[in-house]
Specification:
The protein is α/β, with parallel strands linked by helices. It has two domains: 157 residues, Medium-chain alcohol dehydrogenases, catalytic domain (Quinone Oxidoreductase, Chain A, domain 1), CATH 3.90.180.10; 125 residues, NAD(P)-binding Rossmann-like Domain (Rossmann fold, 3-Layer(aba) Sandwich), CATH 3.40.50. Helices cover 25% and strands 28% of the residues. Strands 3, 5, 6, 7, 8, 15 and 16 form a seven-stranded mixed sheet that branches. The chain has a six-stranded parallel sheet with strand order 11-10-9-12-13-14. The chain is globular.
Length: 311
């Protein structure tokens, strides 16, 4: 089978299309998927570049990718909720017990897969697993945003931020977000009440006494503490904040590392099929153009997700 693989750590130049990669088989607790589409995440680039090799070394050759959408072709022992022929989406990253999603077939743990939303196509579905689970975890579980509260979402035009804005609005919150100049109208179209151009504006001079900040991008976390009311919550996907400062302001900091679960994916599918949340796909590339896809993803600032089509 075809698969996008790398045999050493490095930039996009180390990615190769293997024509004869071994097709995976389903181990107990796994499903094998004929992959129709897969999307790119920062973790994919970090693993390939070797930034995480001490914590999470990979076995070469390694197949890139985690997020997928496709059709189940085989189920392993102990799989009861999914069947051959089901259209599913989820995560098949090698470090999560899968075989990598940028391939014609992938194996994934059943706990990281769920039936895909029925109202969208495979490309849209493939854009959702990690960013959708991240948004649900950040907005609904960690920040626990409620009607009438105020939240600042950093990186509102990105894959996670674009969904987080929609989820927070669905919960009745007032949503401010930071984006680049070119993304202001896009963020407004997602429902943001207040859009701050981080290139020309200082968000700390604009927003005050917020209940929560969801940091999906890199603005100073110490500055983010300043816009929170006492007792506020800072959910961070970009590292820690200064402990002395957070203690002084009586802020709760929740670091977030996301792994999509079947429960989160099922919840997300309901939100998509009800029309309450819409996936955001910036651009799609064929598997043979996977290097170009990663170059675009890593060098530009995509609005939403970059997807690779495989079938």
């Amino acid at each position: 089978m075809k698969a996008a693989q790398f045999k050493q750590y490095g930039g996009t130049e180390v990615i190769e299309i293997a024509e004869d990669a071994p097709k995976p088989t389903a181990k107990p607790g796994q499903v094998v998927i004929e992959v129709h589409a897969a999307s790119l995440n920062r973790i994919d680039s970090m693993i390939r570049a070797g930034h995480m090799h001490q914590m999470m070394p990979v076995n070469f050759p390694a197949t890139s990718g985690g997020d997928f959408a496709g059709v189940i072709t085989e189920i392993g022992d102990d799989v009861t909720d999914l069947r051959v022929g089901d259209e599913v989406y989820g995560q098949a990253g090698a470090l999560l017990g899968g075989t990598g999603s940028l391939a014609e077939y992938a194996a994934a743990p059943v706990g990281n897969a769920a039936k895909k939303p029925t109202s969208i196509d495979m490309i849209q579905a493939a854009s959702l697993p990690l960013v959708g689970a991240s948004a649900i975890q950040g907005i609904e579980e960690h920040a626990d945003i409620r009607s009438g509260q105020k939240i600042l979402v950093h990186g509102g035009a990105g894959g996670i931020g674009s969904l987080a804005i929609q989820l927070a609005k669905l919960r009745g919150a007032y949503v401010a977000t930071t984006v680049a100049t070119d993304d202001i109208e896009f963020a407004k179209s997602l429902g943001a009440d207040e859009v701050i151009d981080y290139k020309t504006q200082d968000f700390t001079a604009i927003v005050k006494d917020f209940d929560a900040v969801f940091a999906t991008a890199q603005p100073s976390l110490n500055d983010s503490v300043k816009v929170l009311k006492k007792g506020g919550v800072l959910v961070s996907m970009v590292g820690p904040a200064d402990e002395a400062m957070t203690a002084k302001h009586e802020i709760t900091v929740i670091p977030q590392m996301t792994q999509a679960s079947a429960d989160q994916l099922t919840r997300l599918a309901r939100l998509i099929d009800s029309g309450d949340v819409k996936p955001q796909v910036d651009k799609a590339f064929a598997l043979d153009r996977v290097r170009e896809a990663f170059d675009y993803f890593e060098q530009q600032n995509p609005r939403g997700k970059v997807v690779v089509t495989i079938k």
